[in-house]
């Protein structure tokens, strides 16, 4: 079934796909900053490929959101013409890249989460989300492999790599909980078999990530403060800078093509 | 030259209920930037075949899989030096490319060098016998 007609279901789904699309879009933008800066040429390629996959996911989700909310906005319109408070990504994906270990820690968290999410979405009652989930889950499997392999390499490498990898995990961990935040809108969509309530993913996610960290001989960070606000458009200071750079060319040359 | 039919991108070509010829396609990778070019080329073929009003419909489900690449497509990929993919349901170590014959020397002493390569669909393998690297289409 594809969503037809107007009404709250359609609006809820527009908001949901916007959240998922923004997560992918902003993480893609962050990862692009590693191109020409990665530790090796293979990593340059790997990170660029991951960023391109994420961009593909963002385009699919944002295009769908623009159709659902009936503003007729395209994926480009949504990416380049919204301001900070209109973005619905979690704070995890807008974190500055930090050193390579911070980036790998962020990937470990997000790749496992997104694979669980997309695999669950392929059973969605909405045909577009189901098709998206089936395809995207296969793509992010390779993101997960990449993140897990690097976590293990760094954890079991030298004293320096181990120190940095543990520090990276401690740094990003407070932003993990927001991925699993519940709200009424998503609960309604989940009850209708359309979306996946993030809270459903928390236990399998914890199990998977803990297994990787055990293999890497690293510690699961202790619970501490939890970041929140991204789903309501309340972003961190660096988000303004990210958006300014990301949107700068489009805004300087409105309507430009090349 | 590998064709869209070889890749399984073209899912159906049929006259729709409204009498218009419709070509149904599935993107290989989500947001694949080649899709506008692919659509433009299909439109050109439709026009040349007397169907200037023919339309193209993109569907996401069922999701594209490398299993849809035809035997002919796989043969052509090999000829271009790209090792074709394993079955999408094969175990991970197989899918990652361990033991695929080296296009350079034929040895099976090959292993994955990186799951990411020059394009989103490719991984890079290395032959431990002759030390050459080669591209491999990832099974998915």
Anisotropy-based shape of chain A: globular
Provide the gyration radius of chain B in Å.
Answer: 18 Å
Gap between N and C termini of chain A: 38 Å
How far do the termini of chain B sit from each other?
22 Å
SSE blueprint:
The complex is a heterodimer of chains A (258) and B (140).
Chain A: H1 8-32, H2 41-68, H3 75-81, H4 91-94, H5 100-121, H6 127-155, H7 159-172, H8 184-191, H9 202-215, H10 237-252
Helix pairs in contact in A: 1-2, 2-3, 2-6, 5-6, 5-7, 5-9, 6-7
Chain B: H1 4-7, E1 10-15, E2 21-25, H2 35-48, E3 55-58, H3 71-79, E4 82-83, H4 92-95, E5 110-114, E6 122-127, E7 133-137
Parallel strand pairs in B: 2-3, 4-7
Antiparallel strand pairs in B: 1-2, 5-6, 6-7
Kindly list the characteristics that best describe this protein.
heterodimer; A: mainly alpha; Ferritin; 10 helices; B: 2 domains; 3-stranded mixed sheet
Structural notes for this entry:
- The complex is a heterodimer of chains A (258) and B (140).
- Chain A is mainly alpha-helical and 258 residues long.
- Chain A has a single domain, classed as Ferritin (Up-down Bundle), CATH 1.20.1260.
- Helices cover 65% and strands 0% of the residues of chain A.
- Chain A has ten helices and no strands.
- In chain A, helix 2 packs across helix 3.
- Chain A is globular, with a radius of gyration of 18 Å.
- The mean pLDDT of chain A is 95.
- Chain B has four helices and seven strands; from the N terminus they run H-E-E-H-E-H-E-H-E-E-E.
- Chain B starts with a helix and ends with a strand.
- Chain B is elongated, with a radius of gyration of 18 Å.
- Chain B has 140 residues and is of the alpha/beta class.
- A four-stranded mixed sheet of chain B has the order 4-7-6-5.
- Chains A and B meet through helix 2 and helix 6 of A and loops of B.
Summary, kept brief:
The complex is a heterodimer of chains A (258) and B (140). In chain A, 65% of the residues lie in helices and 0% in strands.
